[in-house]
User: Fold this.
Amino acid sequence: MKAAALLIPLLPLASFIITGLFGKRYFKEKSHYLSVAAVAVSWLLSMYLIIQVERGEELHWNIYSWIVAGNFKVEVGLLVDQLTAVMLLVVSTVGFMVHVYSIGYMHGDGGYYRFFAYLNLFMFSMFMLVLGNNFLLLYVFWEAVGLCSYLLISFWYTKTSAANAGTKAFLVNRVGDFGFGLGIMLIFVTLGTLSYSGVFGSADLIGEGTLTVICLLLFMGAMGKSAQFPLHVWLPDAMEGPTPVSSLIHAATMVNAGVYMVARSSPLFAHSQTAMFVVALVGTFTAIFAASIGLVQNDIKKVLAYSTVSQLGYMFMALGVGAWTAGMFHLVAHGFFKGLLFLGSGSVIHAMSGEQNMRKMGGLKEKTKITYWTFVIGALAIAGFPGLAGFFSKDSILAGSFNEGYWYFWITALLAAFMTAFYMFRLIFMTFHGKPRDAEAFAHAHESPRSMTIPLIVLAVPSALIGLALGLPPENGHIEHFLEPVFEEVRGELHGFHALDASLMALSALVGIGGILLAWQFYVRKPELPARVGARFQGVYQVLLNKYWIDEFYFATVINPVRALGRGLWRWVDMGMIDGFVNGAARFFRGVGLVIRPAQSGKVQLYLFSMFIGFLALLAAYLVLTM
Amino acid sequence: MTPLQQYLALAGALFFIGAWGILARRNLIMIIMCVELMLNAINISLVAFSNYSPTGNGRGEVFVFVIFALAAAEAAIGLAVAIAMYRLREKLAVDELDEMKG
Assistant:
């Protein structure tokens, strides 16, 4: 088990180093051999670890002391428990599938080797993030996945928008990481340790106020990484990256790091009512906020991006109301179906020769059958269609918030679920149904190569079935038992499954189906309706289309003032004062030089004359002074 | 016996005439001659001091011979430079010899 846990991250790391060093000159378009193989082995080993954990084994292994300075001690160690196993399941499976998919999607790209090297580096960092056994390791690899995210968003770095999006992701994440770092420091100052076991073992020793501050700071990091309002702005822009990246990093794995961190820190959060409420509030608000923006977006990837933000909000809401298992369940289900949806959108973009605007698509159903059907499965799953993954996970979240007495969160989340079903099927109807809007692009449209369709099919399976496999029966499903040791002490008591729960379940199913039907009404039966509604509610439509002007707000309040400040400092302080001082010194000596230069006339007699005068002056002074 | 002051006045006058010549004349030959004039002014004052000093015993005169030797060497080199310069440039105005000026 130790060897497996160690090899899971190290194989992608080795592949990253080798592919990164030799890919450009030697591997070229064969770069994927090594990196896909490495991730495939990591996937097998992850499955092995999950089975071991399932059998009741755990791994707590301090490999070596990394930092020992006074009472500050940090070990590099691996921790494999149920929570890690759940994360490994998503990360390794989606990661593996995305690697396979990229063979087809990135084929012929100039940076082919670079892409696979970065993906491997990301896999290494993400594995270490979930395997680490203390907060500092978590922080280090938290930043490492952020770096990979940056590198991959701006993968096509010659495109200005991609380079800007990468920078934006990096900067917005820094805001959250700033709080995260402070939170970790506060943990150390309070408890003197950073290892999970040490911190969680003495969580109840921390004062209420301090604990709340710690949790809120940690959650700030989660808000950045998991794109929660108001730090969500980077994720939609991150869609500038290649689509496999959007699928792997910005839907299925990295953005879940925040959820994982809060779930991992559940012993801390559970002790602070305030922090829990903030988590739930931010999560719920983000869920409805991002879903409403998703209603009107026209870029296929942007819709999915806002959907991701919204679903992440769902997960935080679950954690915040104390439905820990439901949150993790949704993380798993969402990882699979959103990974699938992004890969599917990549396949669509591939078919349309790079077109992402849904208003130029339509009718693709006939030409891309596999993509269409897998996409429908993914969309049904996220819409909460009964029986599919999202139905069980979303329902367990809704039931959790309802049973814990947060009816206002419940209603909001239900509304968000309705919107989710609507915009997902709006996407499907605009893309795959109806008449082709761009005849030329449609004529060239074709199904993707097999390296791309097979991952779609593979991911469609868990998207459809994982709910049944893990979530049934509600509150007593497999995942509930599996995660029990992790959340045993922090979760509320189970209510059991009653008639009320059954009716809630039926209600959330109805809401999902209602959303689908409304989308059908809007985009299939009466295609002229959206424009009419848009014109009728022009104000609302503009607000949504412009994403509530959040970006503009940040530009006005933060970015432009900071830029103006920078420009002012540059112009007045740097150029005016510092350069002015340096140049002034030079100019001063130059001026003095100009004045006294005539003295160096080269006329020796003049020099002698001055010497003579000087001598006489000294003599006179001597005489005067000695007299 | 002539008082010391008269010797010194003569020496001083010669010295300043020589100094003025060095500073004011432009001809290299004249400058060299003025240097000689100044050296001789010093010689006069040395001999005078030696003669008036109770413990002189000819020490001042000894210096005069040293200065003679020095002046002879200086005149030899200086005139040689002047001749070489004249052959090269056909003029001896010192203020026009400014090739070394930076």
User: Anything to note?
Assistant: The two ends of chain A are 103 Å apart (CA to CA). Chain A touches chain B at residues 600-605, 608-609, 612 (CB under 8 Å). The longest strand of chain A covers residues 59-69. Strands of chain A lie at 59-69, 72-80.
